Amino acid sequence: MNTTISIFGCGWLGKPLAINLVNKGFLVKGSTTSKEKLKELQSNKIQPFLCTLKELPTNILEFLNAEILIVNIPSKNVAGFKNLISFIEKSNIQKVLFISSTSVFASAKEIITETTTLKNCPLKEIEELFQNNTHFKTTILRFAGLLGYQRKPGNWFKNGKIIPNPEGVVNMIHQDDCIEIIKQVIVQNCWNNTFNACADTHPKRRDFYTKSFLEVGREKPIFNENDEKSMKIIGNEKIKTTLKFKFKYPNLMQLPNQ
Questions:
Q1: Model's pTM, two decimal places?
Q2: Residues near 51 by Cβ (< 8 Å), separated by ≥ 6?
Q3: DSSP bridge partners of 169
Q4: 112 pairs with which residues across the strands?
Q5: What is the pLDDT of residue 160?
């Protein structure tokens, strides 16, 4: 019998992930907050559910009738996640993949790894809610800034907005690499683990955004030259070693202009 995977949050990352998993032979359920997108999910062979964290639907246990749950929503609603987990405990879910963010880390002089101390913030608390629960196995994936396809960095700073910290560095990851990492966690059965996921290179913000602006036909960006330099470099050695993962887009200055 094929493994059933439920994806809480079929947006920019969740929808192409769901389609990819369907094409690999998984049975996939997907949630959306938009009634208009239900038919779109269904047309891609994804069983659709209308669902928000704030108001879980009455058929939430039907959505959670799966072996694996991928939680892929940007909410920092701690109470909402506690409520969701109470339903997961009553369900057939055996494994949870929680999509987190490298924003849980503060700036630091040293390279940030999975053992680096986290900031005290709602996302840290939410990670711990999943990690400390003994009803299911959890893997935490902390993605750096997301880019690719519709998410073009050259479009991020509009209306003359000045870009801060030009001498700082960029930590980002392409959508294709995000999807492949998620698949490899599932296929390699790599649970009860935590990974930081970021491209290999960390170009200066000045260089990266100048190139990104030119790629979308905009004039060179304006930087805050008086902004204090803060540094954050996300290391990715653990994910490359543990999953034997090779990034499709390791160099952020050589991304395709999609």
A1: 0.96
A2: 8, 31, 32, 33, 57, 60, 63
A3: 204
A4: 234
A5: 85
Radius of gyration of the chain (CA): 19
Q: What is the pLDDT of residues 225-249, one digit of tens each?
A: 998 778 999 999 999 999 999 999 9
Sheet with 4-8: list strands edge to edge. Answer: 47-50, 27-32, 4-8, 68-71, 95-101, 137-143, 193-197
CA angle centred on 210, ends 207 and 233, rounded to 5°: 35
pLDDT at 258 over 80: no
Tokens, residue 68? 């694996």
Cα–Cα distance measured from residue 192 to residue 190, given in angstroms and rounded to the nearest whole number? 7
State mean pLDDT over 96-115. 96
CB 195 within 8 A of CB 114: yes
E runs forming strands in 16-109: 27-32, 47-50, 68-71, 95-101
Q: Calculate mean pLDDT across residues 78-100.
A: 98
Average pLDDT in the 210-226 region? 95
If phi > 0 it is left, if psi is from -120 to 50 it is alpha, else beta; for residue 66 that is: beta
Which of 236, 237, 239, 145 is CA-nearest to residue 183?
Answer: 239
Strand 137-143 and strand 95-101: the pairing is parallel
Looking up tokens 């003994």, which residue turns up? Answer: 134
For the four alpha carbons of 18, 52, 83 and 122, in that order, the dihedral sign comes to: positive
Cα angle: 181, vertex 121, 86; to 5 degrees = 70
**Averaged pLDDT for residues 20-29:** 97
Nearest residue to 234 via CA among 175, 172, 177: 172
217 has pLDDT over 60: yes
